[in-house]
Amino acid sequence: MALVIQKYGGTSVGSVERIQAVAKRISQAVQSGDSVVVVVSAMGKTTDTLVRLANEISNNPSSREMDMLLSTGEQVTIALLSMALQELGQSAISLTGAQVGIVTEAEHSRARILQVCTDRLERHLLKGEVVVVAGFQGVSNGEDLEITTLGRGGSDTSAVALAASLKADRCEIYTDVPGILTADPRLVPTAQLMSEITADEMLELASLGAKVLHPRAVEIARNYGMPLVVLSSWSDRPGTRVVSRLPQPRSLQGMEIAKAVDGVEVDRDQAKIALLRVPDAPGVAASLFGEISTQNIDVDLIIQSIHEGNTNDIAFTVVNRVLKAASAVAEAIAPSWRTHPSLTSEAEVIIDRQIAKVAISGAGMIGRPGIAAKMFKTLADARINIQMISTSEVKVSCVIDEAECDRALHLLSQAFDVDLGSQKEITSRPYQVNQPPVRGVALDTNQARIAIRHVPDTPGMAAQIFTLLAQKNISVDAIIQSQRCHIINGQPTRDIAFTVAQSDEKLACQVISELDRQINCGQVSGYKAIAKLSVVGAGMIGHPGVAAKFFASLARENINIQMITTSEIKISCVIDEVDGIRALQAVHEAFGLGGKEKITIPI
Ligand code: ADP
Ligand code: ASP
Ligand code: MG
Questions:
Q1: 152 touches ligand 2 (CB under 6 Å)
Q2: What's the pLDDT at 422?
Q3: Which residues surround ligand 3, an ion (CB under 5 A)?
Q4: Residue 236, Cβ neighbours under 10 Å: how many?
Q5: Residues of the chain with pLDDT under 50
Q6: 150 SS3 class
Q7: Is-contact 540 444, C-beta < 8 A?
Q8: Which ligand is nearest to the CA of 136?
Q9: CA 576 to CA 500: how far, in whole Å?
């Protein structure tokens, strides 16, 4: 007999008929011998409707009252589903998050789960009852027992948290598509179902716009090694398995807040090639990385900052062994841009062998902007200058001077309480034969780009900027420092750009403008009409040519790339919002991810 957590999303329980169909599926599982805990979302678009109602009354409703309001949606579903189960002769009981004891921090609208009490659940399960739990909600840990919600899409997280706490055999997420697909089928009609994906890849995809799973649900599954499967509530197809590596044993207390960082890594075997003043035009990154991939050279980090005038800077890192070949390609291609109409002065190639990459990693840093800020501050306090920054949801990497490497490693492991045993030195990058170089693509159109010009190039600047943003709880992604240095009033400066959620754009600009007065940098500008397009695949490690193919497919569509950032398993490009869907479809096609099977989506 297995203990299974089944979660049903809004569309799956969107009508009385759907609730009855779901009840049948659950009772079949019980008849086959399983114990079942069910987590449900609000019916259909209920949560959106409630949000609209609130906005009709207030432009800025209090987050406490919003939680009170939104949590009602799930409460309707649990009662109806329990009734439907009872109608089928299956004993069942509905419980709110508070009744179960899903204890969260007292942060309204984005609470993290601290622990799930399992006593009451276990009592009901022992009696052979199906327990139907309201997803997306919890109760605060303070004296006041406030109702909290976990953030939009958070029912997935409730389900996996319950599964981990009950040490269930698996967690099944039933939704309106057959599983995890190579892209959102609403945007890419040729998207295909994958039979499995690693939790690392899914974490990236989920946080880069694939809303089929809440990223925090993937994080918990990964941390506790919980088998997770995503499947359709309309069919009996097996869906997609999200596979995790065997996790380190981990306490269930402080589930979503314990230990944000579990690794500090350093890679000394890196060299940086920067190309300054390359034309800001479609096809430039494609031709550079196209040439590099013909030499079979694997690039690691790639960063392209916001343009200045008509030109961009592109920097990338490679292992020292291939530096000569890579720089030869860069030197050879730079003069060919001289004739480009947008180029007023010549592109310049700068090579730096004396660099190292330090990185902190851990699934717990998702949505916790203070973690990156703490890394920058730790380096700044030690007067270590950061040359390049690249971020993903679960990793922040900084390129620093090689001579500072040991000090950085020591200080970061101290700051994040990571013991020496879990520190890793990356020296080899094994080619992962079983992993496709690109597993899926995602588009995020909810991001805004923020640029700060002429930030003094001294240790501590990134720390100041991102600490301030973290204090306002603004999560930052795709942080990019320009390669180009400007001397302003005798002081070297660089531009910094990054992306934030569109809803945070105004506040982020405000916060930085205030800082601006103190540190005296240039203008701060926000721009909303962007889209972030990303390709994700664990197999891109040690597989040259993925970036080249990505950029070439955009060039063929005549789409200009505004920014590039990478992590080991993803490449993201910021492009114009109007080009988003066309670009997504082109890139999906270029990587051969499309197929013939038509994915049907219930309306
Ligand atoms: P639920 O209400 O069941 O939680 P969601 O709407 O939150 O469902 O998530 C399912 C939706 O996610 C799908 O209908 C699909 O449009 C979207 N989606 C985005 N990216 C992907 C992807 N890579 N694979 C599958 N679905 C995706
Ligand atoms: N009902 C909530 C939402 O729409 C939570 C969920 O469905 O996961 O965001
Ligand atoms: Mg969802």
A1: yes
A2: 46
A3: 9, 153
A4: 9
A5: 422-433
A6: coil
A7: no
A8: 2
A9: 15
User: Domain residue spans in the chain?
Assistant: 3-177+212-243, 263-418+438-590
Topology alike, domains 3-177+212-243 and 263-418+438-590: no
E strand or H helix at 47, and its extent?
helix 46-57
* pLDDT tens digits, one per residue of 408-435: 999 999 999 887 564 444 333 333 446 8
Nearest alpha carbon, ligand 1 atom 1: 9
The DSSP 8-state label assigned to residue 577 in this structure reads: G
Cα(361)–Cα(585) distance, rounded to whole angstroms? 31
Which residue's alpha carbon is nearest to atom 4 within ligand 1? 9
Listing DSSP states for 429-474 in one string gives: ----TTS-S--EEEEE-SEEEEEEEEEE-STTHHHHHHHHHHHTT-
Q: What Rg value do the Cα atoms of the chain yield, rounded?
A: 25
CA 511, distance to chain mean position in Å, is: 24
Complete DSSP assignment for 467-479: HHHHHTT--EEEE
Ligand in nearest proximity to the CA of 157 = 2
CATH number for the segment(s) 263-418+438-590 = 3.30.2130.10
Nearest to 536 by CA among 587, 582, 594: 587
| Three-state secondary-structure class, residue 194 | coil
In this prediction the pTM is 0.91
What stretch of H or E contains 75?
helix 63-87
Q: CB within 8 A of 162, min separation 6: which ones?
A: 5, 37, 39, 100, 102, 116, 121, 133, 168, 171
pLDDT, tens digit, 9 for 90 and up, residues 294-349: 888 888 888 887 777 778 889 999 999 999 999 999 999 888 887 666 666 678 89
CATH of domain 3-177+212-243: 3.40.1160.10
Substitution site in 22, 202, 212 for ligand 1 pocket (most atoms within 8 Å of beta carbon): 212
Do residues 184 and 442 touch, judged by C-beta distance below 8 A?
yes
